Amino acid sequence: MTVTRILSAVVLFSASPTNADTFGSGANSFDIEFVTIGNPGNAADTTGNPSPPHPTGSVAKTYRIGKYEISRGMIGKANREGGLGITLADMTNFGGNGRGKPATGVSWFEAVQFVNWLNTSSGSTPAYKFDGNGDFQMWQPNDTGYNSDNLYRNSLARYFLPTVDEWYKAAYYDPVDGVFYDYTTGSDSIPDGIDFPGDTTFDVVFDDGPSNVLYLNDVTDVGLLSPYGTAGQGGNVWEWEETAFDLVNDSISSNRGIRGGGASNGPSYLNTWSRISDPPTEEAGRLGFRVASVPEPSSFLLGAMAAVRLWVRRRSLESNALYPGLLESALREKGRG
After folding, report:
1. How many Å apart are CA 44 and CA 59, to the nearest integer?
2. Cα separation, 292 vs 305, whole angstroms
3. What is the pLDDT, as a whole number, of residue 86?
4. Whole-model pTM?
């Protein structure tokens, strides 16, 4: 296989190696596991929400996104380590307040403060700008890292909330077939939800029974993974996007997009067509979030190697399909020699 073909395979195909970043120290140490989202420059989806004039899900660069939603335990440790003071919703009646449950009741402003702490505690630039009074601001042209295409995020930051496109691609895009599916399970079929309290056989955490009851699972127990390998982007809790609902990040107070559906919602809220919004101050028990990040160099290399393996496997399968007796004949000839 030539170098050109190898590079083509790297560009066209993507694997999703996972790796974890560590934050905090001592008893307050915790890991966030990330999945690499490759296939930069993929075509957008024109059938989901938002739809034209803003097709969704095309991302120009490789990036990483949290495999799981941020948990209550992570927020607790960040609060103790960084003095963040982030409050959580009391979920006693809706699955409990265990450390493995998703961090609900976190406003958009609190979520980006958590993300800023991830950056500053690891020596990176804050993604989001707050003034001396703790009020959120937009980045200005004279700020280092200013990006005119996104006034919310500093371009030098390592960690951030996913944009509408970054979230959508990680949830619904299949990097092998190069298509978007309607659901995060890698399928256009309605997934199986929670059919009754205590149901342990399900595809996605949503109420599939006769009544809607908000009952959250641990972030690592949320059913099937997306084609890229993320967990719980459909169901369990709605998740904040970085992006404003109107897709123009030019207002401090404008509603932010949320998507993915929650445990108390029906299947129509889980698919690519469902995107709603909340003000950035909202602290509802149905709201959580996950973190995205720039790629690690090692992640790209792992993804590249896996992409080459995938390319070789596909070529082998295609050759065998076109010439089904070729391999067997070659083996027989070798045996005769």
Report:
1. 8
2. 23
3. 98
4. 0.85
